[in-house]
UniProtKB/TrEMBL annotation:
Pfam families: MAGE (PF01454). PANTHER family: MELANOMA-ASSOCIATED ANTIGEN MAGE ANTIGEN, NSE3 HOMOLOG, SMC5-SMC6 COMPLEX COMPONENT. Signal peptide: none annotated. It comes from the Eukaryota. One of its GO terms (cellular component) is nucleus. InterPro entries: MAGE, MAGE_WH1, MAGE_WH2, MHD_dom. Residues 19-222 form the MAGE domain. This is Similar to Nsmce3: Non-structural maintenance of chromosomes element 3 homolog (Mus musculus).
Amino acid sequence: MSQRARRQTATQQGPADNLDHLGSRVIKYLLEKSHTKYPVKASDIKKYVLGKHAEHFRQVMVIVKDRLRKIFGYNLVNTTGAQYFITNMIVNEYMKALPRSDDEAKEQILLFLVLSFIFMCAENNQNAIIVEDELWEFLINLNIITEDESQHPYFGNVKSLISDKFVKQLYLIKSKQKETDSVLFEWGPRANYELDRKAVLKFVSKIYNCPMENFVKQHKAMKVFERSALRE
């Protein structure tokens, strides 16, 4: 194609064509980053992908969200602090998505145990929030950590994974209680999208060999979140 023809083609391209092209670049960037499970900042998308076209960010992200859903079956989640992460739209019982490595498999097992424990501590139909010491005590009882040692031969540095990596990946929210300065944990936004509470309740009910309905508070919480998901 001659330079003149290329110039004519570029001239003929309208705003919609340019937005589609930018959308494709953003999708490629998000998919490349998704394997880390860390959220992507809006500022990074503007800086590293959109560049001088950053003023079209909102329009481009509408295209990105729609295309990820229709073509890839992914859900683009916009969370606090102008961050984005991708989840599979298919609900995964026990996190069915196959891990890419042994390390990821180990981390997912630990993560499932932690999220299950937090959920089973629910006192009402809202997200359960637990004190850090309660979580460590739970893991000590499972012989995953000891009072003096958080390194495990299978899971690695358990406390570091929970307090740092799982928090950065948005599986957990870590905060401090104002009155006592205690560290608190609760389910993060990624956990709410990727892990089905019904799967957790099934898992626990099998361990105790009883119906899910026996766990009244947790069963009620599960139903509340199921209804909430249907409305979205």
